[in-house]
Design brief:
The complex is a heterodimer. Chain A is built from no helices and 11 strands. By secondary structure, chain A is an all-beta fold. The chains are: A mainly beta, B mainly beta.
């Protein structure tokens, strides 16, 4: 299957700082990328959907000013957690698909964010 | 609204025993259904998917799943579990708008020797 690379795999930051997480599709063009958040022992919660060249669509309850998503190219989407707080500590996972509802979404390996 | 339910939060099976993980979905049209596996601290790996056609779907690592429209179910099965199968398993349905996945709560599988 296609490869999605997510970086960094782990990051620790201080409260009040911003952290950027990258999601890259290595061998295909990802017209759509999804960002999920996963709490311990919990399922994945979709945060937002981003399409290349357009603004991300955020799910209800997700602060778009806090979680900035940019999908500048067909192979790269970034999630920036701004002014991070300890409650933002979580596992963040991206996925990417080429097009359409019937195509497989490929997942990155996730990023463990710890805010201290 | 679309939803996915995995009734079992945690299942323990003996190595070599058979396995069935339950998944029920709520969706107005014919769903696109997926099973993913997640090892601790890792991303998700696709085990199998159902879009249409044969309702018994074969996946990787010896897994299979059967789509039953009458029961709104898509249960995952494996005839003989290996210790390396211990992980978290997620059932998911894709919405027709934009292809975003709706996940079930997950089932944690433990395998005892």
């Amino acid at each position: 299957g296609a490869v999605v690379s997510q970086h960094p795999s782990r990051v620790i930051c201080k409260s009040g700082t911003s952290v950027k997480i990258e999601c890259r599709s290595l061998d295909f063009q990802a017209t759509t990328m999804f960002w999920y958040r996963q709490f311990p022992k919990k399922s994945l919660m979709l945060m937002a959907t981003s399409n290349e060249g357009s603004k991300a669509t955020y799910e209800q309850g997700v602060e778009k000013d806090k979680f900035l998503i940019n999908h500048a190219s067909l192979t790269l989407s970034t999630l920036t957690v701004t002014s991070a707080h300890p409650e933002d500590s979580s596992f963040y996972i991206c996925s990417a698909s080429s097009s359409g509802a019937d195509t497989e979404a490929f997942f990155g390996q996730g990023t463990r964010l710890t805010v201290v | 609204a679309q939803s996915v339910t995995q009734p079992d939060i945690h299942i323990t099976v003996s190595e070599g025993a058979s396995l069935e993980l339950r998944c029920n979905y709520s969706y107005g049209a014919t769903p696109y259904l997926f099973w993913y596996v997640q090892s601790p601290g890792q991303g998700l790996q696709l085990l199998l998917k159902y879009f249409s056609g044969d309702t018994l779907v074969q996946g990787i690592k010896g897994f299979e799943a059967e789509f039953k429209r009458s029961q709104s179910s898509f249960n995952l099965r494996k005839p003989s579990v290996h210790w390396s199968d211990a992980a978290e398993y997620f059932c998911a349905v894709v919405t027709i708008q934009g292809g975003k996945l709706i996940f079930g709560q997950g089932t944690e599988l433990s395998v005892k020797p």
